[in-house]
Amino acid sequence: MRILLLGGTGEARALATRLHPDYDIVSSLAGRVPDPALPVGPVRIGGFGGVTGLRQWLGDNEIGAVVDATHPFAATMTAHAAQVCAEIDLPHLVLSRPAWDPAGAVLVDSDVEAAHVVADQHYSRVFLTTGRSGVRPFADSDAWFLIRVVTPPDADMLPVHHEVLLSRGPYGYDDEHTLLRDNRIDVLVTKNSGGLLTEAKLRAAADLGVAVVMIDRPPLPAGVDVVGTVEEAAAWVAGLEQ
Ligand code: NAP
Questions:
Q1: Distance from the alpha carbon of residue 33 to the mean position of ligand 1, in angstroms
Q2: What pathway does the UniProt record associate with this protein (predicted)?
Q3: Do the bridges between strand 211-215 and strand 187-191 make them parallel or antiparallel, or are there none, so unpaired?
């Protein structure tokens, strides 16, 4: 049985390493990042062309099961996979890493709402870690932004006062503490991505008394099977009828 592994995350790469070559897997990346970290084993890159394209692709490639290990905020891909797998009765699992505890943070539902909080609270030095697509809502802000992204935002997305820091995690506590302190950050804006690779910024912010505005996760589609760890996902694959 061939298994489609929807990826773009460290967990997806770790799962590919666990499964390849014992299982017939193909990993899929969206193709957003020019030089992506590639999982082991076969990889395809690029969108499927919506629900219709995904349905066609799954049939053409004789896929017998789908593990969705995309980022918790990749809601469109997750919705498409859940819909198509339900329609064609394909075994389907979502690997969603546990969320961070939002205690102490201002919890919001969107990057637009986060931008309102930053404006309303008159924060002046913002550490923005919501990714390239999360920059635009802050474009009209007068605050200064340290914008950490993997791929540079377009010029028209950027607020007037900013510095772009191109980098890719993981990030350790000491470096995050230094970054927040040296840049005199007064608020951290983050998605509730969860996971250990980027959570040090939350501990550093707490220790420095930096406020946190956290964007809550989009809900998962109703009725999907969900696990939180690579180990559980590997066990689910092992339990499939091969
Ligand atoms: P999204 O909004 O849910 O997806 C938008 C479209 O991108 C999908 O409809 C699909 O295009 C395509 N796509 C997304 N993930 C894909 C995959 N793994 N393989 C093939 N096509 C994919 O997703 P996104 O938030 O833009 O994230 C894109 C990728 O970056 C994901 O793989 C995700 O794991 C990774 N990532 C996202 C974030 C984040 O904060 N959103 C952070 C880190 C990594 P079609 O409709 O044409 O099939």
A1: 11
A2: Cofactor biosynthesis; adenosylcobalamin biosynthesis
A3: parallel
| Residue 139 CA to ligand 1 centre (angstroms) | 23
Question: What average pLDDT score do residues 107-124 get?
Answer: 98
Contact between 1 and 58 under an 8 Å Cβ cutoff? The reply is no
| Contact predicate 12/39, CB 8 Å | yes
pLDDT digits (tens, 9 = 90+) for 1-40: 999 999 999 999 999 999 999 999 999 999 998 899 999 9
| Of 26, 71, 84, best ligand 1 pocket probe by most atoms within 8 Å of the beta carbon | 71
Atom number in ligand 1 closest to CA 48? 48
Rounded to a whole number of angstroms, the CA Rg of the chain reads: 19
d(CA 102, CA 169): 21
- Cβ–ligand 1 distance for 33 under 6 Å, the answer no
Angle in degrees, CA 40, 46, 52, rounded to 5: 120
pTM of the predicted model as reported, rounded to 2 decimal places: 0.96
What DSSP line would sit under 3-36, residue for residue? EEEE-SSHHHHHHHHHHTTTSEEEEEE---SSSP
User: Ligand 1 pocket test: which of 61, 77, 191 has the largest number of ligand atoms within 8 Å of its C-beta?
Assistant: 77
**Could you tell me the distance, in angstroms and rounded to a whole number, from the CA of residue 6 to the centre of ligand 1?**
9
Sorted by sequence, the CB contacts under 8 Å of residue 226 that are 6+ apart come out as 93, 94, 95, 96, 220
Residues 6+ apart with CB under 8 A from 166: 149, 150, 151, 152
